[in-house]
Give the backbone structure.
Amino acid sequence: MIRFFEFAGRPFIAIVEECGRIMLLLFSAIVWMFRPPFRFRVILKQMEFVGVNSLTVVLITGAFTGMVFALQSYHGFRMFGGESLVGATVALGMTRELGPVFTALMVTGRAGSAMAAELGTMRVTEQIDALSTMSVNPIQFLIVPRIIAGIVMLPVLTIISDFIGIVGGYFVGVKLLKINSGIFMSRITELVEFEDIYNGLAKAVCFGLIFTLIGCYKGFYTSGGAEGVGRATTESVVFSSVTILISDYFLTSVMF
Amino acid sequence: MIKLVKVCKSFNSQKVLDNLDLEIEPEKITVIIGRSGGGKSVLLKHIIGLIRPDSGQVFIDGIDIASLSDKKLNETRKKFGMLFQDAALFDSMTVGENVAFPLKEHTVLSKKEIDEIVNKKLLQVGLKNVTHKMSSELSGGMRKRVGLARAIVLDPKIILFDEPTTGLDPIMCESINNLIVNTQQLTKATFVVISHDIESTFNIAHKVAMLYHGKIIEIGTSDEIRSSNNPIVKRFIK
């Protein structure tokens, strides 16, 4: 009987242990974040990698999300003559939910996986050990700049995604489906509040922390050569995406 | 200068270092030989504090680094340079940036001064006009040379080598061995080399120590090791 519970509880204990190690890494990163030297160039380089280099994918995702959302909601609202609400629905959906979540998932796939792969390769080729032998703390040098970049750049990308999604919704609603432009815009200004935008950006900050922390954790503690790097990369994307979606539910239930 | 006292280290249930005692002479080349997977790299990582022992002490200049805080350990590590097995050059940096890295981190020298030192150290290891190359463009031998240039750029008192000739052809092996000997004569630093290449070992070593089953079973000059009566040593160097 005890053996059965041991067997059944093993995965649960493994998850708890892994979460504990991630929290310890986060704690170390926070401590090293406020200790000199402050490497602004490395932080800017990471911000470019996470933010500027993700712009294209975020623009495409945001635009088409807004467009398809406008199309679907138009067909739904038309059943009871509520087409005028399409603009506000798209804007609320983008700012509260779709902008932050889709941006986080896309950036996780692009930048989070790259972080895990890069740090994993550095681990298995002893580059992280080399940093330590040169009296440079690897958490401060490698992980802190990536976390800062994620926390700062994901909200910026989310604002862009929100905007381009609403523009996409406007294009489909007003130009293709012939909803009155004035009504489309007035409903947005009437129903969307700044709080919706702020809360969406607060979510983006949390998601930025989640994908960078998990990507860095998986890469930093990689073992097992090239196979280990591949495993770490896959796990980082899956674990980050799932954590983002789960945390989104709880953040939404607290915020709105 | 470097002294290990009763160092024990196990990974899971496997004992890698077992009450190991070792004293390394300053300003000499000491080569630690032993079987592959026998704990040589683990021993080297204990000397620089990358791994902490389960028990025992690791003295560097009289300070037990096994019990130091991370901050104090970082200070002690400034005495060290280390050449890793595959050089461990940073992929994202050029050769020049790799060699300049410790200078940028630990000195307040100007860019011009740093460039001068980088060029001097690269020349010292026999490399010219490579500062703008990426590490992925280099051959195995060149990578080791750049790694050595990076290891000596702060003129450390102790330089550690993890299998410096592994994966190199015989000519490049000889070239790296000569480089190690010449660099030691020039810098007068303490060199600790991990190797299972017996020919290279006797070519460069002032002292040879044999690691077997987690213990140093024999230590002496190359001639003393060659004439050792220990059957394990005899079998290993045959």
User: Anything to note?
Assistant: The mean pLDDT of chain B is 93.
